[in-house]
Each structure stands twice: as structure tokens, then as C-alpha cells.
Amino acid sequence: MSTPRYTVPGISLNDAGEVIDQLRMRLHALNDLALTLKHVHWNVVGPHFIAVHTMIDPQVEAVRAMVDETAERIATLGGSPDGTPGTLVSERTWDNYKLGRADALEHLVALDHVYTGIIIDHRKAAAATEESDPVTQDMLIAQLHALEQFHWFIRAHHETAGGALTEAPAKTAAPRSQTKGRKKS
């Protein structure tokens, strides 16, 4: 746990350290998501190219704003946000996004899994900060609102009229998810 030397009034140093640790992983996940979304933006092909290509950029910009907000909250609590690629890769608990140049449906199914993992872990962090820091919890809940909407946009592209989600063709590499395929420590 990171224990800061100072924090905001009304939060113990111990609680602030726990919140900073929660936010550090959220910072990594959001940075990773922004990069992954941009990667998809550049590598999507096929008949639905333009729809997916243009849908992704506003998500990238919104997620980048979440990254900044999260890093600034870490600093406000007395921590030192580390958004370097090396730290992200060494501390993350999920696998790298597997697809390169691929059909829109393949990317959308993979992004469905990415968003699922991020949302699950964001919800856990929101629950973990409820008692110790409702300000951080409020920030995470607001971010969840946008993340869940973006997830809906992604899912709508591979959902049938009956509400079933289609999966990408079998050749698709297994997507990275924060809740499945975690690295062994």
C-alpha cells in the first residue's frame, strides 16, 4: 500500500493510501483502454469500417479525460500518479489486446470483453471507496456512467434483434480482459 505523507482533510493517511492504490490500477486500466481504442481505430477494416472508426475517437477523448481526472485525484490525495508505459505494463493484471488489423465484428467482440473487465473492476473500486472517500467514489461512478454507455455502443454492433450477442469468427485471438486471463503473480 502507498501511504502518502499528507492527504485531504477528513481522510486518514492509511485510508488515503488504500484509495490511491485503487486509483493507481484504475489509472492503468484507463490509459490502457485509451491506447487500445486508438489501436482499434487504426486497425479496423471491413464493411463497417467507417461506423466503428468514427465511433471510437469520441470514446478515446472521453477516456483520456478520465485518465487526467484520475491522476489528478491521486495527486490531490497526496500520491504521485505514474502514467508511464513501463509501470502500466509491469503492474497491470490483464493480458495485452490481441488483435491487429481485423474485421469490425472481431474488434467489437474483443472490445466488449475489454469494457466488461474495466467496468467490473471500476465497480469494485467504487465499492471499495464508499466509506473511506465518497468523493473518489463519486468520480468513479461518473466514469462508470460513460464507460457503460460506451460499452452499450460497442455491444449494439454485435447484438441481434432478439438481444443475443454474437461472437466473432473462431479465428479471433482471445481478447484481453481484466477479469479473465489474469497474469499469475
UniProtKB/TrEMBL annotation:
Species annotation: Streptacidiphilus alkalitolerans
Region Disordered, annotated ranges: 164-185
Highest taxon listed in the record's lineage: Bacteria
Family label: Belongs to the Dps family.
CDD domains: DPS (cd01043)
PANTHER family referenced in this protein's UniProt entry, alphabetically: DNA PROTECTION DURING STARVATION PROTEIN, GENERAL STRESS PROTEIN 20U
InterPro entries linked to this entry: DPS_DNA-bd, DPS_DNA-bd_CS, Ferritin-like, Ferritin-like_SF, Ferritin_DPS_dom
Protein name according to UniProt: Dps family protein
Residue span, Ferritin/DPS domain: 20-159
PROSITE patterns registered for this protein in UniProt: DPS_1
Record SUPFAM superfamilies: Ferritin-like (SSF47240)
